[in-house]
User: What shape does this take?
Amino acid sequence: MTVKNSLSVFLLRNIIIGLVIIFLATLMVSTLMHSASHQPREGEQMSYFEWVQGLLALDFFDGQFFVKTYRTLILTFGSLIVSLLLALPLGIVSARKRDSKPLRFLTGLADLVCSTPVFVTAYLFILVGIKLFEQSFAVVGSERSSFALLVMFLTLGLSNGTVSEIMRHAREETVRISEQGYITAVVARGVNYKRHFAKSLLIPLLNIVSSRMVYLLSGAVVVEHVFTWEGIGKWSWDSALAGDYPVVMSITFIMVLFVLLVRFGNSLVASHVDLRRR
Amino acid sequence: MVPDQKLNHNTTIDRPLLSVEGLKTYFFLQNDFIRAVDGATLWMNQGEILALVGETGSGKTITAHSILGLVNSAPGIVHGKILFEGRNLLEGLDRFCRIENHGETEIVRKDLKGWDKNHQRRLDSVRGRKITMIFQEPVSSLDPYYTVGEQLSETILSTRPGESRSNARDSAHEWLKELYLEPPTYYFDKYAWQLSGGECQRVMIAMALAPRPELVIADEPTTALDASTQTEIIRLLLELRAKYKLSILFISHDINLVLGFTHKMVVMFNGRVMERFPVESLRNGSCEALHPYARKLISIDEREKPLEGDDDLNLAGRKEETQTVSSRACKYLLFCPYVSELTEDLSNRCKSSPPPQVQIEKDHWVSCWRFARKA
Amino acid sequence: MPRVFRIGQKGLLSRIPALTRKGILGISFGTLVVLLIVVGALYSKPYAKKFGRGHLHLEHKYERPHIGIFEKVFCHTNDQSDDSSESRSAGDEYEEDDIYQEEGNPESREDSASMLYPLGADKNGRGILAGLLAGCWTVLQCGVLSVGLTLLLGTTFGVLSGYLGRAPILAFLKKGRLMEGKVGAIASSSVSLGELANLLPTLVNIFPRLVLVIIILTLWKEIEIWSVVIAIGIINVPKVSYAIKDKIEHLKNQEFIEAARELGVPHRRIILKHILWYSCKPIILVQMAYIFAEVVLVESSLSYLGYGLPHSWGGMIALERDLILHPGGVYWPFVFPAAAIVIAIIAFNALGDGLSRWFQTRS
Assistant: This one.
């Protein structure tokens, strides 16, 4: 089979599976919500079918949806960048300099500190922020100074174990790659090994990032609560508790779609570069 | 069997092309030193093929890696000189590293970072340009995420800065043709894991030859290949050597193989060189291996009767014993059949200091106290 | 700076790397904290009875929060107070009544240090230590039950999906035309039975955990122990089931299962004995530790957001939410529960790490 053919099969297969998963996931949530013990609000109890109709007519995606999704996306990706900035160098360097005691201490520390729950880190940063910078994080609504944004990113990025996982994987992969032999061969040829190393690290990294995405979203729920950042996480929580069916369903849809897209992107890049999947 | 190669070297230059003197490369594992290379001395002239022979664990691969500065672990190279074309590649080592002997224990003090910087800078002009290397496992020595052609072009580009990409690609195609990988356009876009071992090895040879080096270090290039591919690769290597006037340092554990086409042979055991002899004289019988280890290797391969009173030379099984022997004794002490026959004086020397390399004939040197002239 | 390499450094400090490599450090630290938690849980009722300030007793003595010994030593809280905010936050569910307005003047705060509140008191006059102990009990209860549920479900799904394997579900359609061309390609590369069995864990895995938890929690009118246990149990299932599925597939590649079938070993025995007990035991044990950490994390987050179990460390932190905005040196209602949570999570993670290294060096 030529490359084009297998690519289109791959795309088609993933799309179909993705659609099935979205369908099943929304069905599952719908079942749960319908069996919820809340009194349905007036006119809020709709059937699954009605919701799907509304969805296809783009009925639920008013401006609020987009803004809130956008906000959560910013939070997620910003935190991801923070995590990567800390975890990648630590992981890679700690693989190379395995004997360095301060480095081991540092990585161990990062590992432990970053396994804490989100609200603990949140409080820590708020305390620090207030004490050092005298900035208040009081509820301003949706306007946020960039400093506050930074604190949010730091909070989510440095908790929930994201940094630990990325660091651990980066370290393992660096060790594995260095033992491969082609890095030595590249160095022996006088070529800069960084390009080769980076490409080899790319796929494992994408893998771990896409599998941590779900945890980032889950942590975003708490962060949005603490900082009163009106995003999808907080909204889903509040509407689930209120029994607001269409909102919950639509948020579910978006979240599942997002996670599936991330995974799809991951396997796309992986199959383009990686071997076994061909 | 590969036909004889005519010795074609011109020894107009007096100094050898590569000269390794007293190289010591140590590793530090679980609170103890592993003396992978413990005072190795060897040299080769321009245009020669030198075989570096020894078992697994004898330090031959580490020697090769030390020449090209590929040793990453601590402490790494701690002592010695590597003279290439007259320049010492390990210049300044004594500034960064000091070995202190306190009786039986050794203490190594090394400034790892400083030495690294110094060393890498010195190697930049040599590595991949004047000295190149071919590795043992051809498929895993190629990056699986880049095509073969891309890696070849990359090598060409790095040796010829300023060359345009398309020129480098064309050169890559030419080199693929040179290595009988035809049609080159087919091979260019293949990945390492799509090719056979022999084809990968040829790509590696191409990458080693493209910079037009002086010296090619071949680290057991045929060990991972089957017999017929072995012969093919060696034949190819020799053909290209004649064409491009290379010197080859051929590392192997198979004496039989290298007897056929190399000029000089150096036998290593446990990190030190035991004997060096001209292969042709060995073949036509005009010289005989003198060191007991070398004799054993050759006799085992030629299936002659081994020396009496010997069990199998099982180095791995005797690791503990070899470690308890003083690091400054002769490395072969535990296995040497002659130790008991020596005088008190001589055998003491065997136990307490490494034998120097003594010249027997023009190119025949032995590292054994039995042949040392009395001081 | 030159590095010195010396033979035979056998000091204690140099033994630590070997210990961590074997995982002993992790295991011992983890077990220590587990023991502490168990002891704390067991002691919570007696302590509350003894001092009458426990969280388990919902009758309050409406007293002012005294400053405990720690605080006398470590911080001089002259100024101000915490609460007296009237906002009803979710944490207010834990208070009976909020007739706690006055905080007392600064002077009244510096009452004599009392042993009654060794770790200080929160804004409702309940001892922090008592709260910690009660939280131990919650952690244990929730953790054990939840992990048990996760293991049960996880092994079931994992074994199912691993065992049923890659038999493509459409292979049953042997009609010739269907197998040709693009459709055939899709069909042959499509879903297998094993993946089908893996469906539920996959679905669960797709969701952010807290979102799924709250959706599941809406099934119950009131939060009780079983609701939280089931919710948290479900969301952790994918981890276990994926791990077991991978392991089984790995085993399958070794043709070990086929060999056993050839010998006529019945399916059930294969699964229970060979797979689960011999091969998966290390995985299960390690995952148990990690999932316990996850459970503590999720449960405390839940409690923080107001929908967890009544006596939980997260809930204690939730009470003091406004404290953060006006911190006046009164930090203990927040620090101690937070430290407890962090230590518990770290300990279980360390336990998991240690166990996995232990099993690695064993094999």
Observations:
- Confidence is low (pLDDT under 50) at residues 53-116, 171-180 of chain C.
- Chain C touches chain A through 42 residues (CB under 8 Å).
- The longest strand of chain C covers residues 3-6.
- The domain at 128-362 of chain C is CATH 1.10.3720.10 (MetI-like fold).
